[in-house]
Amino acid sequence: MKKLFRIGLLLLLATPTFSQNPYTAKAKALMAKMTLEEKIGQLNLIIPGGAAVTGSVVSSDVENKIKKGQVGGLFGITSPEKVRKAQDLAVKGSRLGIPMIFGLDVIHGHKTIFPIPLGLSASWDMGLIEQSATIAAKEATADGLNWAFSPMVDIARDARWGRISEGSGEDPYLGGQIAKAMVRGYQGTDLSKNNTLMACVKHFALYGAAEAGREYNTVDMSRMQMYEYYLPPYKAAVDAGAGSIMSSFNVIDGIPATGNKWLLTDLLRKEWGFTGFVVSDYTSLNEMTNHGLGDLQTVSALALKAGLDMDMVGEGLLTTLNKSLKEGKVTLADIDKACLRILEAKYKLGLFDDPYRYIDEARPAKDILTAENRSAARKMAAHSMVLLKNDNQLLPLKKSGTIALVGPLADNRRNMLGTWVVAGDWKQSVSVLEGIKNVAGNSVNIITAKGSNITDDTALFLKRVNALGVEAEIDARSPQQMIDEAVAAANKADVVVAVVGESSNMSGESSSRADISLPASQQALLKALHKTGKPLVVVLINGRPLTLVWENEHATAMLEAWAPGTEAGNAVADVLFGNYNPSGKLSATFPRSVGQIPIYYNHKNTGRPFDGTGFAKFKSNYLDESNDPLYPFGYGLSYTKFDYSPVKLSKTTLQGEEKLTATVTLTNSGKYAGEEVVQLYITDPVASISRSVKDLKGFQKVALQPGESKEVSFVITTEELRFFNSELKKIWEPGTFIIHLGTSSANVKSAEVIWNK
Ligand code: BGC
């Protein structure tokens, strides 16, 4: 009896997946009935013709493939009617009736569009970010979907890379917190509910470190850099229970991520304990051939063995695995492993209990673009905006007098949503002009003028940017005529509000820019407006940090509004007129010039640090540019003023696992109620490796009435002192640490502590 018990116990310990995952047994039982072709079919994810595509391939003969059991999931279609038709083919038309999963790029909202992810991250508000994902899940499931290709958690330190707009910026701690909030928002606590979606964390891994910010480019990085700065957000999403992961386009240590065994198996599964499934990016499996890894059969076998489970669009697994099995290049166990993971996901989603649980034709009208969802999007957008400059307290604007509202993005709905809005409809969005009218009513007189095209560069820019549909057009008027009209409007006004920036697809995938300034047409407009001598508010609608040195010097006030989403105009107006006092903080450094890139706050000190102004020979600096960014990470102003007391520490010497409390008294000494993001950074000045100058380790968003003070405290443990050493062990080393609390990475109050082992 005792022996039997011991054997049972051993078996239990030896098969952790059984005890962890209640669906494994069911999936295995189903697999016992499946043919080899049907198993391989589960690994195939395809996009039917007519859907939004980001590559050159779309599948043909989709209907027949589904009926033959050759398709595990579809992506790119929306609406319960269309999804039902497709699911019918699988459930009623295929031999075993295995349901398909339905995915989509639900990135920052489904049909109610929230700010682009870079904007979301600038709110530093995890509650609102989670809520945006919950609403996206509710709308997307109402549209028949059950799988979102989000969150995108790639760390990016290079604003030339267009996809910096899709992530949470440069910091691993902030990025990790947001990754968790997004996964919680999409997946809720029960994936089988009909209003939750399976998350797909992407792009695993390091995609944001593409050399020179050029899309799809090579990545080459030390393991220490990966573990400390680039991998934590993916790990955070895995820890939060994300059901799936998408491999990235780039190489890692010379091997494409999609076929990288170290990445997909050793790190992801063995080290991190990930139990979901891995899907490739769009044809990234086939692209391994261009990377120089061999023909389609070779790379497909390599990817499967490395740990890839599902092939997006490329059909490499579908068309080659049978042959590879016969030739001994893969084993049945390799195929079974991948198939099992995909079936388990379908069980988790509840699709085997009811393949139609996400398909309800009555739901879109009830759940999509509701007043409630729109109001959440408006709030989120206002919270994401960052006040970059506000001379003479020009903002908030009074709801009286005359405003000249100018710029190519002022009376523009088309470019309010930003990149990746597969299901979003720009016609549903609110322009800045409409928003100002809604918020200020008849009490302000508004004179409008377009002032310039988004760009005049037809030959190059416009045609490329308009690849996904016309978002910018060249006006029939000449550039000078438009500028003259804007100047005339400005001359009649008390204040000028210029809404300028990028069109939606000037950032996002395949939108790298070598020059990240405002297009020349818009710079010329701003220069002409400045000459009028009128107070000038620049509202920026854009998807990435821009170089704005001239604008920063000459505008009276600047508001970074990102691509704010469906409620864009209302949210911009809420902030401009002070209905909401801006509280956003940058999650990515704004460089002064492209030559400074990559530029990020948590850099190392170098052996010859530069700490002054001007140029210093034989120091780490530039002959022709300052080292400082234009706006540092964590930066953002408020209409009110926040004062920080010196940092108080509960102790100045600690031992081992003791805890330290660092406190600052925050006072709102201005005239407006407001919120401040208090940021905690730690410096480890002496260690066994060269550490960064400081790292973000915590933050709190605090609301204060005018005149009110609050003590804001952070509890610090040795966890916050840990780093990956040269053996990739996460350790802490005793010594002195500098604790910083402040309003941005460049503006902090500091205190020292000695922490002994
Ligand atoms: C992108 C992914 C996206 C996929 C499917 C790819 O080009 O890199 O982020 O999820 O297309 O649309």
Which molecules other than protein and nucleic acid are bound?
A: beta-D-glucopyranose
Query: Could you tell me how far the N terminus lies from the C terminus, measured between alpha carbons in angstroms?
Result: 48 Å
Query: Which fold name fills CATH's third level, the topology of the largest domain?
Result: TIM Barrel
* Domains, number: 3
What's the architecture of the largest domain in CATH terms?
Alpha-Beta Barrel
Q: In CATH's first tier, which class of the largest domain applies? A: Alpha Beta
Short description:
This protein is α/β, with parallel strands linked by helices and 757 residues long. Helices cover 31% and strands 18% of the residues. It is built from 23 helices and 27 strands.
Describe it for me?
By secondary structure, the chain is α/β, with parallel strands linked by helices. It has three domains: 19-363, Glycoside hydrolase, family 3, N-terminal domain (TIM Barrel); 377-588, Glycoside hydrolase family 3 C-terminal domain (Rossmann fold, 3-Layer(aba) Sandwich); 642-756, Immunoglobulins (Immunoglobulin-like). Strands 9-6-5-4-3-2-1-10 form an eight-stranded parallel β-sheet. It has a six-stranded mixed β-sheet with strand order 11-16-15-14-12-13, sandwiched between helices. Strands 19-27-26-21-22 form a five-stranded mixed β-sheet. The longest helix has 17 residues, at 126-142. 53% of the residues are buried. Beta-D-glucopyranose is lined by residues 54, 105, 149, 202, 281-282, 509. Residues 54, 105, 149, 202, 281-282, 509 line the site of beta-D-glucopyranose.
